[in-house]
């Protein structure tokens, strides 16, 4: 199970890499586009500000990811890495996303509940999802975010906090999760294992 | 539904977990990596490791303890104690922490909150506040003071005001320890916790005083805590996270129940 993890200096990769190695994956970490030409699977982690994804454009990683996705290489974006799959986010209007999904990520609306959404919340899983194979609706995963994606036909899992939002997205070989599977106990490890076991 | 979090805290000195009463009288409670792993299996939602001596000489030991503890831990893992600079924080993240908890250093140098957040994200920065009610005031709760240096020094600052500032400087969460309650097992300071939780828009973790299931229910209800932290209640087999969470769930409090 070979997987390439992209380092674009947005937060800390240690936990993601540790979880993947725990699952027996052969992990390569890169901040350059070249290794993506031979990647079997790609994970784009990321926490913090959407503007940090600018580094993907500056380093040529955006183009390399687009090419890999075109070759049907399974791709998983985590947290900001998922949000980047959309056209953009109101967190950084000047910074475009990959636009694999045309919607825009927005901040949770003002409400009595606190923003950011931090902690363990339940997921309602789409039965056709490959990423959530053998993961039941109602299981809890760990979130920490202030921006979220809307529910659409490509939503693989939804979660309710203030309002319903897409906690995971899936179309063909493109996957994204708003939560942190590497910090979501056995449920999260199962989701990562499902990704590692996907065949092109 | 977002669940309330139960956080298991390991106070570590020289690589061993210890527990004291009101910050003194320390006794040995075991190996941090083994205890962290056990807590996670038993359903703790997060693990916090606090280096309570935090001497310069002890940094190497701490980082090795963090590395060993983090290696097989797949729930959020926070490390605090003696983090004075962004470089100290980076070393702890590199060893496998997901969040750092900063206390005295944030008070002395509030810019540190934003500095760590710039590199690792606001979610990775917990500002820990050691608070004591101000009995000289007509409103001891709202006028509670922040203490530093392991609770030995009164900073003279208002808890509510400092929590506000920490939030505005980019803290992701507040870890509020009531020094009046700490180690007493007589219950959390719900009035103080509610005052802070209502003053900020970031999650507040209540700490100090856990002794019974009812204390947790109380701090989630009256105290409006987003999470509650406890140490001694777990270490000596008084209760497990699993038993605690099952009882709280039965009382209608939203909990992630371990499988």
Automatic annotation (TrEMBL), chain A:
The active site is at residues 79, 180, 182. Pathway: Amino-acid biosynthesis; L-histidine biosynthesis; L-histidine from 5-phospho-alpha-D-ribose 1-diphosphate: step 5/9. Residues 5-196 form the Glutamine amidotransferase domain. It is found in: Cytoplasm. Keywords: Amino-acid biosynthesis, Cytoplasm, Glutamine amidotransferase, Histidine biosynthesis, Hydrolase, Lyase. The keyword Magnesium does not apply. The keyword Iron does not apply. Pfam families: GATase (PF00117). Its main location: cytoplasm. SUPFAM superfamilies: Class I glutamine amidotransferase-like. InterPro entries: Class_I_gatase-like (IPR029062), GATASE (IPR017926), Imidazole-glycPsynth_HisH (IPR010139). It catalyses: L-glutamine + H2O = L-glutamate + NH4(+); 5-[(5-phospho-1-deoxy-D-ribulos-1-ylimino)methylamino]-1-(5-phospho-beta-D-ribosyl)imidazole-4-carboxamide + L-glutamine = D-erythro-1-(imidazol-4-yl)glycerol 3-phosphate + 5-amino-1-(5-phospho-beta-D-ribosyl)imidazole-4-carboxamide + L-glutamate + H(+). Heterodimer of HisH and HisF. IGPS catalyzes the conversion of PRFAR and glutamine to IGP, AICAR and glutamate. The HisH subunit catalyzes the hydrolysis of glutamine to glutamate and ammonia as part of the synthesis of IGP and AICAR. The resulting ammonia molecule is channeled to the active site of HisF. This is Imidazole glycerol phosphate synthase subunit HisH. It comes from Acidicapsa dinghuensis.
UniProtKB/TrEMBL annotation, chain B:
Its main location: cytoplasm. InterPro entries: Aldolase_TIM, His_biosynth, HisF, IGPS_HisA/HisF, RibuloseP-bd_barrel. It is found in: Cytoplasm. Transmembrane segments: none annotated. GO terms for molecular function: lyase activity. The active site is at residues 11, 130. It catalyses: 5-[(5-phospho-1-deoxy-D-ribulos-1-ylimino)methylamino]-1-(5-phospho-beta-D-ribosyl)imidazole-4-carboxamide + L-glutamine = D-erythro-1-(imidazol-4-yl)glycerol 3-phosphate + 5-amino-1-(5-phospho-beta-D-ribosyl)imidazole-4-carboxamide + L-glutamate + H(+). Pfam families: His_biosynth (PF00977). Keywords: Amino-acid biosynthesis, Cytoplasm, Histidine biosynthesis, Lyase. It is an enzyme of class 4 (lyase). Its EC number is 4.3.2.10. SUPFAM superfamilies: Ribulose-phoshate binding barrel. Coiled coil: none annotated. Pathway: Amino-acid biosynthesis; L-histidine biosynthesis; L-histidine from 5-phospho-alpha-D-ribose 1-diphosphate: step 5/9. Belongs to the HisA/HisF family. Heterodimer of HisH and HisF. IGPS catalyzes the conversion of PRFAR and glutamine to IGP, AICAR and glutamate. The HisF subunit catalyzes the cyclization activity that produces IGP and AICAR from PRFAR using the ammonia provided by the HisH subunit. This is Imidazole glycerol phosphate synthase subunit HisF. It comes from Acidicapsa dinghuensis. The lineage of its organism: Bacteria, Pseudomonadati, Acidobacteriota, Terriglobia, Terriglobales.
């Amino acid at each position: 199970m070979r997987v390439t993890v992209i380092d674009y200096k947005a937060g800390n990769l240690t936990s993601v890499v540790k979880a993947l190695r725990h699952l027996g994956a052969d992990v390569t970490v890169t901040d350059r586009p070249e290794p993506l030409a031979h990647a079997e699977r790609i994970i784009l982690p990321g926490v913090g500000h959407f503007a940090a994804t600018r580094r993907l454009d500056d380093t040529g990683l955006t183009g390399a990811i687009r090419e890999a996705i075109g070759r049907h290489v399974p791709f998983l974006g985590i947290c900001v890495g998922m949000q980047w799959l959309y056209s953009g986010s109101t967190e950084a209007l000047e910074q475009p996303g990959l636009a694999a999904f045309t919607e825009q990520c927005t901040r949770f609306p003002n409400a009595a509940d606190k923003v950011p959404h931090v902690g363990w919340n339940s997921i309602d899983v789409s039965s056709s999802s490959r990423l959530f194979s053998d993961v039941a609706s109602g299981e809890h995963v760990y979130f920490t975010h202030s921006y979220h994606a809307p529910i659409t036909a490509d939503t693989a899992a939804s979660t309710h906090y203030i309002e319903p939002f897409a906690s995971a997205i899936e179309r063909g070989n493109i996957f994204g999760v708003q939560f942190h599977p590497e910090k979501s106990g056995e449920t999260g490890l199962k989701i990562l294992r499902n990704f590692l076991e996907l065949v092109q | 539904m977002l669940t309330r979090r139960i956080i298991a805290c390991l106070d570590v000195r020289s690589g061993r977990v210890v527990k004291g009463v009101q910050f003194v009288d320390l006794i040995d409670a075991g190996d941090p990596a083994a205890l962290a792993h056990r807590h996670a299996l038993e359903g703790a939602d997060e693990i916090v490791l606090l280096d309570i001596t935090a001497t310069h000489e002890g940094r190497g030991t701490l980082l090795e303890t963090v590395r060993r503890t983090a290696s097989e831990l797949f729930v959020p893992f926070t490390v605090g104690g003696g983090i004075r600079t962004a470089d100290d924080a980076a070393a702890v993240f590199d060893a496998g922490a997901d969040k750092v908890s900063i206390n005295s250093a944030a008070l002395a140098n509030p810019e540190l909150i934003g500095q760590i957040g710039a590199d690792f994200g606001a979610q990775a920065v917990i500002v820990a506040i050691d608070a004591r009610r101000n009995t000289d005031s007509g409103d001891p709760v709202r006028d509670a003071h922040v203490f530093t240096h392991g609770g030995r020094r009164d900073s003279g600052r208002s808890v509510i005001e400092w929590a506000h500032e920490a939030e505005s400087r980019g803290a992701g969460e507040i870890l509020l320890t009531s020094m009046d309650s700490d180690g007493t097992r007589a219950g959390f300071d719900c009035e103080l916790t509610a005052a802070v939780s209502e003053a900020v828009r970031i999650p507040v973790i209540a700490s100090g005083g856990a002794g019974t299931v009812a204390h947790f229910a109380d701090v989630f209800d009256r105290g409006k805590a987003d999470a509650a932290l406890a140490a001694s209640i777990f270490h000596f087999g008084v209760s497990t996270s699993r038993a605690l969470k099952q009882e709280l769930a039965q009382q209608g409090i939203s909990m992630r129940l371990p499988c």
